Structure formats: structure tokens, C-alpha cells
Amino acid sequence: MKNKLPLLLRIVVAIILIQTLRFKFTAHPDSVYIFTKVGLEPYGRIITGVTELIAGVLLFIPKTIWMGATLTLGIIGGAIMMHLTKLGIEVNNDGGILFITAVITFVLSAIILWMKRREVNFF
Fold this sequence. Notes:
With about 120 residues, the chain is an all-alpha fold. The chain has one domain (about 5-115). It is built from six helices and no strands. The chain has helices at about 5-20, 20-25, 30-35, 45-60, 65-85, 95-115. Helix 1 (about 5-20) packs antiparallel against helix 6, helix 4 (about 45-60) runs antiparallel to helix 5 and helix 5 runs antiparallel to helix 6. It is elongated and about 40 Å long.
């Protein structure tokens, strides 16, 4: 189980990241609403989607797992800050599910990065 846990965490984070792409790339009304409210529509929505796609892919390339986790922390950290400052916990009567998902993704990415900390090489 110990060997499967890191892969399971990466799969969960990647699924969360990648499943939101259809909303961002198809200009779903909820996605447009969110990015309009934070003043980043349409470019922020598209750039965020592309960045999430890159992070999701990096999580499955052995030498870049830590990069994917780090990128995810940055993206999702920004999403959490937007929820706490401009959007609120609940968006469009979603019961806070977007916020909860962001927090879960952030925590799992932090765990992944912690597990890969010895592989982080800036130089």
C-alpha cells in the first residue's frame, strides 16, 4: 500500500484538475461567472485552464512530479485566496463544494510535494 499511495494521490489531484477543464475551455456559465467576479475573464480562465492541464500532466512524469505538485499548490492557493477574498466559500449555491475541493487538492498536493521533497532540485 505504501508504494501505491503516492500514485493514488497523484491520480486524485490530476482528476480534480483535469475534470474542471471542460468548464473552463467551453466557457461554462459558472466558470465565466467566477472569473468575471474576480476580474480575470476570459484570459484568466483560459490561462488557468492551460496551467492546470500542464500541472496534471507533470504529476505523471516521474522527474516532474514535484513540479506538478508545486504548480498545483500555486494555482489552487490562488483559487483558495479568491474564495476567501472575492468569491466567498459558496459560489452560485454550490454548498461550498468548489472551495472544499480546492482545499482537498491543496492538501493532497502538499503531501505529494512533501513525499518528493528529496527530488526537488533548483540548481
